[in-house]
Amino acid sequence: MSLGYSIHGTCQIVCENDIIKIDAKGPWNFEYFDYLHKELISYSSQVNLNNYCVLLNLSGEAIVVDGAIEKHLFFVKKSTVKAIGINLSDCSTINITKKIFQRGYGTAQIKHEFFQTEQDAINWLKIELSQ
Questions:
Q1: 18, 47 in Cβ contact below 8 A?
Q2: Can you give the pLDDT at residue 2?
Q3: How far apart are CA 11 and CA 55, in angstroms?
Q4: Backbone phi, psi, residue 26, to 5°
Q5: Are 98 and 58 in contact (CB under 8 A)?
Q6: What residues contact residue 90 under an 8 Å CB cut-off, 6+ apart?
Q7: pLDDT, mean of residues 116-127
Q8: In sequence order, what are the residues at sequence separation of 6 or more whose Cβ sits closer than 8 angstroms to the Cβ of residue 106?
Q9: For residues 37 and 78, what is the distance between their CA atoms, to the nearest angstrom?
Q10: Angle between helices 30-43 and 68-77 (to 10 degrees)
Q11: Could you give the maximum distance between any two Cα atoms of the chain, in Å?
Q12: Rounded to whole angstroms, how far apart are CA atoms 90 and 59?
């Protein structure tokens, strides 16, 4: 008998030029992160794992249930991601979302920046990839 919950939140992933682009709409629960992590593993063969970045386009209520960000950080800390650019242009919860991800990625010492356009985030990620 399964006691799991359905996935709350959506994502679409594409890879281009060693950037994994994730379009994610929240809010998210634990089950969403299980799904996201499996998807990311399946896309990992499309990037240079020694030099890749992530573009995270957040939309909607980009918030997580208690404890879920820690699960995500555990996964990300095991990766070799060089930097994460976070585009908040379509996010309806900018202030709390910035706090959640700043605290999480900052504590995990994962290089990240916030942007108001996808193109600004991509430009920054390209610089990170070239260093």
A1: yes
A2: 43
A3: 12
A4: -105, 180
A5: no
A6: 57, 58, 59, 60
A7: 98
A8: 112
A9: 12
A10: 20
A11: 50
A12: 5
* Whole-angstrom distance, CA of residue 26 vs CA of residue 15: 21
3-state secondary structure of 91: strand
Q: Residue 13 in contact with residue 20, Cβ under 8 Å?
A: yes
Q: What is the CATH number of domain 10-130?
A: 3.30.750.24
> Any idea how long the chain is?
131
Domain ranges of the chain: 10-130
Give one word for 38, left, alpha or beta, with left for phi > 0 and alpha for psi -120 to 50: alpha
Closest CA to 83 of 106, 102, 55, 63: 55
What's this model's pTM, rounded to 2 decimal places?
0.93
Neighbours of 86 (CB within 10 A): 21
Question: Which tens digits make up the pLDDT trace of 9-39?
Answer: 999 999 999 999 999 999 999 999 999 999 9
The candidate with the shortest Cα–Cα distance to 7, out of 38, 48, 41, 45, is 38
Strand, coil or helix: what is 31? helix
Instruction: Quickly tell me which residue has 């910035």 as its tokens.
Output: 98
SS3 58: strand
Residue type, 131: Q
